[in-house]
Amino acid sequence: xxxxxxxxxxxxxxxxxxxxxxxxxxxxxxxxxxxxxxxxxxxxxxxxxxxxxxxxxxxxxxxxxxxxxxxxxxxxxxxxxxxxxxxxxxxxxxxxxxxxxxxxxxxxxxxxxxxxxxxxxxxxxxxxxxxxxxxxxxxxxxxxxxxxxxxxxxxxxxxxxxxxxxxxxxxxxxxxxxxxxxxxxxxxxxxxxxxxxxxxxxxxxxxxxxxxxxxxxxxxxxxxxxxxxxxxxxxxxxxxxxxxxxxxxxxxxxxxxxxxxxxxxxxxxxxxxxxxxxxxxxxxxxxxxxxxxxxxxxxxxxxxxxxxxxxxxxxxxxxxxxxxxxxxxxxxxxxxxxxxxxxxxxxxxxxxxxxxxxxxxxxxxxxxxxxxxxxxxxxxxxxxxxxxxxxxxxxxxxxxxxxxxxxxxxxxxxxxxxxxxxxx
Length: 424
Fold this sequence. Notes:
- 13% of the residues lie in helices and 37% in strands.
- By secondary structure, it is mostly beta strands.
């Protein structure tokens, strides 16, 4: 896994100041919400991950005859479609090194409309099955439309270090891309969706992945290129010790997303008055539910949950230190002026309560200040959770996932986690 703010990629425009960079990331989180509403719906495999500002990307190897196409793609647990931009696209964004030359690949073949992988609400391109995905908020009205095709993908075997080829994996070859801005020196060519559905690479490689993967994300404040790995199958394990207990909660894999069983939120031991129905998964209403998503830097909560949480944080910092929030602005909803010595002060502890899948009671995920606040130089100390209109949906973003190891076990419908220093 690699930093999206890494100089290696220069995804965020160099002209952006610190506040604009954080707003860029918040907009990505908000766009995920609208993508949820409008999108068409390995044992020894590992992929190296790079990070920056808690949005992560990786590099895939797509076989194409005597040469291989090796695009950088956003790593995304919040979607199931893997796509890269293809040669001849119109319109499209610039990709350093060029787009995938699928017409020259001897192993590429189109998916027909009668293929079981072709979704019911597909579109057509030259008579072949195609998919269109819409992102409504940021970038404005971004859309990706392309052929559903099959191609050979190569992954390195983590045990033997040999490269192994997996043939005929389905992905989207994008021929129309509008509204995407991946920076001045763009090396990002698409999305690596590892949601669970027939069309995801994760599912297609089920014989190798066994429906399991794990990762540990370094915190946003470390802007250096800290490399880490995502592991699949038998290699996907996490562990604790005497002071760090591995905990497990229920997880529902549906429509390419991973929904969690959030039952409440507390601040410093006080349970917030929130109607938890807004967090409950509803197969008929994708605006509800609480999901986990590495493709969203910030967490998102509906107003009915966000407002009580915001009020509790304001009260704690006012009663403890006399701090008053700065007026809300376009950049962030809740920010404070940075006071000398603020790093040494105590901050409110936010606890996410989840339904215990095995017995009575709840499972708690504790979020501390490094998972809740960021020092944005032009704005102040800001709360890294964003509101959205009710009923949602709501999600746990990668900023709040930092310094925790996660294990997804789809067949057993479990998400396990444990606090960990992910930089190590």
